Amino acid sequence: MSRLVVVSNRVAPINEGQASAGGLAAGVLDALRQKGGVWFGWSGEIAASTSTTIKARQTNGAITLCTVDLSRRDYDEFYRGFANDTLWPVLHYQTSLSRFDWNEFAGYRRVNEIFARALLPEIEPDDLIWAHDYHMLCLAESLREAGCANRIGLFVHTPFPAPPVFMTIPAHAELIQAMCQYDLIGFQTETDREGFSDYVLRHCDGTRSLDDPTGQTLHAYSRMVRTGVYPIGVNVDEVRAQASAPTNQRNAVRLMGDLRHSQLILSVDRLDYSKGLKQRFHAFEQFLEDVPAARGGVAFLQIAPPSRGDIQTYREIRRELEAEAGRINGRFAEIDWMPLRYLNRSFPRSALMPLYALADVGLVTPLRDGMNLVAKEYVAAQNPEDPGVLVLSQFAGAACELDAALLINPYDTVGVAMTLDRGLSMRLEERQERHAAMMAVMRRNSLDAWRDRFTGDLAAARLGSPSAGIPTG
Ligand code: GDG
Predict the structure, then answer these.
(1) Closest atom of ligand 1 to CA, residue 398
(2) CB atoms within 10 A of CB 444
């Protein structure tokens, strides 16, 4: 059986065990445990220079974690610059927030090359190499240049936009050419897969491979790249077990304090402009305006752990949200009632999952999201006898599967406000029906299914030699 070599910007600690890890980390760790293998990435440390060989190695059972350090310059150009200030906003259709610099793009390529060179000595001939996310778009190209002939796959966790949006990145052609060095590229939804495939077919003389009746294998730059849709899932039993464990529930009730007497709307997001927090705050304000009966009886709890705090746009959104939360509370709060609680910090999963279970509405309204695991965790955490209601953005990848949620347009302030009212007053029978429908989909598209389908397809992918293609005109 071939080993798995996982490459991502950051690696998750193996010692803390799966229960503490988020969806991606849990899925990857499980796969590594089963197949054995290596997880390679940045240590999170800034050093005097970027390591060109593996800096730290930690083995636990069949898994070896290998990390390298980054220099300040590489961190600034690769991570803070091109990955998070150029790619992230464009991949989330926020082109006006994107800033491009050719030096930073060179830094991004350089770090992908360094990763490839440091990783190469670890690779055995049968290994499957599985890269993750928007930090690694050029990794396969660098590995190929260094002589690696293994099967290499990429899973894109973010959305992948339509060509006119992607082409706002001046280095768009270089990026797509590099991506075509992968043997398999997985996306969260068909819309994302089509974004990439349309670019290859329309803008770089790509063709569909004659050998693949699904039309999902493309031929470009003298290579074959297979594409596919692999919606990431959550481990539903584990989430429900954490949500319903008596100690966790007791702690959550204690954390809630006076809030437990209100109907609760809960949101949990990394503090990121793609998550639509500002629009969500306004929709909640609209709800308080439109439904006076809710005042005093409904509370909105927003948990938003800070992320990427050394990037200007992230500092700005943090300031803006603090101001908005203060303004809304100033407008509506009573001596004995505070409508909005905004917590700019993180909680352990053992506290988060029972909070999901206690919330009457899970409000998940990203402006764009590859999948959004919070939406799936919220559903999985519910008590099936008396479940809460998921209000979900139509622009989250999760909306493709969770169409039994109350789907909203996050830009429609009045529409979201009305949907909150509908969710809070929904009859038990309808809540149960919607919950059961979503659970059925989530059990089918589980985290295990995501991992097994991707690694299975990668193992079966024909090594990227060219084949005859169908001209697309
Ligand atoms: C990217 C894509 C895609 C949040 N706050 C705390 C905490 N979390 C956990 C949640 C969830 C995870 O973080 C967030 O996952 P999302 O999917 O919502 O969002 P991104 O971080 O943007 O992830 C996204 C995902 O990759 C996977 O493919 O779905 O579209 O953007 O698991 O529970 N966990 C803890 N404390 C917190 O305060 N412990």
Answers:
(1) 29
(2) 10
Q: Is residue 467 domain-resident? A: no
Q: Are residues 77 and 159 in the same domain?
A: yes
Closest atom of ligand 1 to 375 CA is 18
The letter for the amino acid at 55 is K
Q: Is 472 contained in some domain?
A: no
Residues 205 and 68 in one domain: yes
Nearest to 404 by CA among 418, 27, 426: 426
Residue 310, pLDDT score: 81
Give the model's pLDDT for residue 464.
63
Q: Are residues 184 and 306 in the same domain?
A: no
Q: What range defines the domain where residue 360 resides? A: 236-444
Tell me how far the alpha carbon of residue 58 lies from the centroid of ligand 1, in angstroms: 25
Interval between CA 218 and ligand 1 midpoint (Å):
31
Residue 15 sits in the same domain as residue 146: yes
The runs of H, that is alpha helices, within 301-397 are 312-332, 349-358, 373-381
pLDDT the model gives residue 19: 46
Same domain, yes or no, for 68 and 130?
yes
Query: CATH number for the domain including 165?
Result: 3.40.50.2000
Residue 210 alpha carbon to ligand 1 centre in Å: 38
* Per-residue pLDDT at 307: 82
pLDDT at 465: 55
Answer whether 0.70 is exceeded by the pTM.
yes
Using CA positions, which residue lies closest to atom 33 of ligand 1? 374
User: Quick one: pLDDT at residue 468?
Assistant: 40
Cβ–Cβ under 8 Å, residues 370 and 343? no
Residue with the two structure tokens 């009746």? 213
Confirm whether 203 is domain-assigned: yes
- Residue 103 main-chain phi, psi, to 5 deg: -65, -40
State which residues of the chain have pLDDT below 70: 14-24, 464-473
